[in-house]
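Name: NADH-dependent flavin reductase
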Amino acid sequence: MTETAGELDPEVTPLHLRKALGRFASGVTIVTTAECEDEDSVHGMTANAFTSVSLDPPLVLVSISTRAKMDTKIRETGTYGISILAGDQEPVSLHFAGAAHEPDRVRFVWRRGVPLLEGALVHLACTVVASHPAGDHTLHVGRVEQLWYDDGHPLVFYTGSFRSLELLGRDEPWGF
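Structure predicted for NADH-dependent flavin reductase:
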């Protein structure tokens, strides 16, 4: 088995799959949920396994490890929030990933009873409509009940590191 990039390895191991999929740049999200509108009941985690599913109805999906407390918390509350982080929120991401303790940087806003991170580019308050087991993860499909967004630069994750975006070409949205 080889660790060299660019060589074909016939064995698909979790490590090699993680390295391969790490080459797909993604935004960084914090998934949150709470039993009530009290900051002491908030549970959150950093996640990049998030995607849109449908525009009509408005559905998104987050993939959570079955070993994570968040999987149980989402099942218990039936709701979750997605905060898509801004470029200056790396410390917040690290806080929720357990890599750093930065409680002074964590401020919540509440939308539809769901905690979301102040300063994020996007807030999505979701109600779980389906949960599907998928290997060692659960795919939680959520209906977006309320959303908010702002302009700015996103925090990006690529090959295990935080990055920023560089504009290539035109500075206009593609039909949005």
